[in-house]
Write a structure and sequence with these properties.
Elements (H helix, E strand, L loop, with lengths): L1 H7 L10 E8 L5 H9 L6 E8 L4 H6 L6 E5 L5 H11 L5 E4 L8 H12 L5 E8 L7 H14 L5 E2 L7 E4 H6 L11 H11 L4 E10 L5 H22 L2 H19 L4 H34 L7 H23 L2 H4 L3
Parallel strand pairs: 1-2, 1-4, 2-3, 5-8
Antiparallel strand pairs: 4-7, 5-7, 6-8
Length: 339
């Protein structure tokens, strides 16, 4: 909270800078009101919220109910996309620090303050947190599965991050301007593109282990589309910006997914040993995900969703399909830049 941060800054040459929250929202009628309510409730003395909302489901009309002195609602046009919406929000902003989130998120004061803290204390020019499912999603096997995998990655993360999570990150205004301030044409991968521009300018990104609540995909199709987009982002922007390590890691992931799916077709040549090796690899992936799930339940003091372990082979297969999916999406001009 702001009072906790104020206690940490006693004796330092710093003040509470102004913060602008930028929020793009397209067809988010189910969550926009909860999101804006959480942002308005943030405990920060100098805060403005700028929303660019639109779509065919009444998102703009719902957002307009929250307009007030420190909340500006802009109409998002068809075809703008996230990058243009963020650019329009930024052009109307005035904050020394820019905080980014998504319209399906709930941001607490503690999480908000923790993410902007390294910037306020002048320890970093950018910081990023993580996310977790909404409380009502924790019992959903699909959401729980993604969360447990993400938490396994988060536990190994260093203080410095290679990327930004666009639903929970903050950047100093001058650093954002130097990085392009959303002026580049970026149809997908806005967060990754911004992170790469910051790194190219010599700006490090601090990782802060705090989460916003976010809506996780709860269908196989939703998971596969999201994972494919994240991997395609790296291929699209990583090669152009020289992020060779991420591109290689991404290519390895796609190759593993594709290789696993076509492996059974080699049974005529590899016979039983080949199938046994394939099954062993599959079993190892399942075992690791079981470990991730048990670690999450212990860490958060929650129960696994009913029947989760029985579904784990199917959920693991969805993971593998999502690793290979960029190959199919990239082959189609219509799906190559699909959100």
């Amino acid at each position: 909270m702001a009072t906790q941060l104020q206690a940490r800054t006693e004796g330092r040459d710093t003040t509470h800078p102004s913060v602008s929250v930028l929020l793009p929202a397209w067809n988010e009628h189910r969550m926009i009101e909860r999101c804006l309510a959480s942002l308005i409730s943030l405990d920060w003395p100098n805060l403005e919220i700028i929303v660019c909302a639109g779509g065919s489901d009444g998102t703009l009309q719902r957002a307009l109910r929250f307009e007030r002195d420190n909340v500006l609602i802009l109409a998002q046009r068809l075809g703008d996309g996230k990058q243009v919406a963020l650019r329009r929000c930024f052009e109307r902003s005035s904050g020394d620090i820019i905080y980014l989130t998504d319209a399906d998120c709930i941001v607490s004061s503690d999480t908000f303050s923790a993410v902007i803290e390294p910037i306020v204390l002048r320890e970093a020019v950018a910081a990023t947190g993580t996310s977790q499912p909404h409380d009502e999603q924790i019992t959903d096997p699909f959401a729980f599965h993604q969360w447990s995998t993400l938490r396994a990655v988060d536990r190994t993360r260093a203080d410095q991050s290679s990327g930004l999570l666009g639903r929970n990150c903050a950047i100093r205004r001058d650093a954002l301007i130097a990085a392009g301030a959303f002026t580049a044409s970026v149809p997908i991968g806005t967060d990754y593109h911004l992170a790469r521009q910051l790194h190219l300018n010599g700006d490090a990104i601090r990782y802060v282990p705090v989460a916003v609540e976010s809506e996780y995909p709860t269908t196989p199709r939703g998971i596969i589309r999201q994972q494919s987009r994240w991997l395609r982002n790296i291929f699209l922007h990583g090669r152009r910006t020289g992020d060779r390590a991420e591109v290689v890691a991404c290519a390895r992931t796609v190759a593993i997914g594709a290789g696993f799916l076509v492996w059974p077709l080699s049974w005529r040549w590899t016979g039983r040993p080949g199938i046994a090796l394939w099954l062993a690899f599959y079993a190892e992936l399942i075992r690791r995900r079981q470990q991730h799930a048990r670690a999450l339940t212990a860490e958060m003091s929650i129960k696994m969703p009913r029947g989760y372990l029985a579904r784990l082979p199917w959920l693991t297969l969805i993971d593998i399909i999502s690793w290979a999916s960029p190959l199919f999406d990239a082959a189609s001009p219509r799906r190559r830049l699909r959100w």
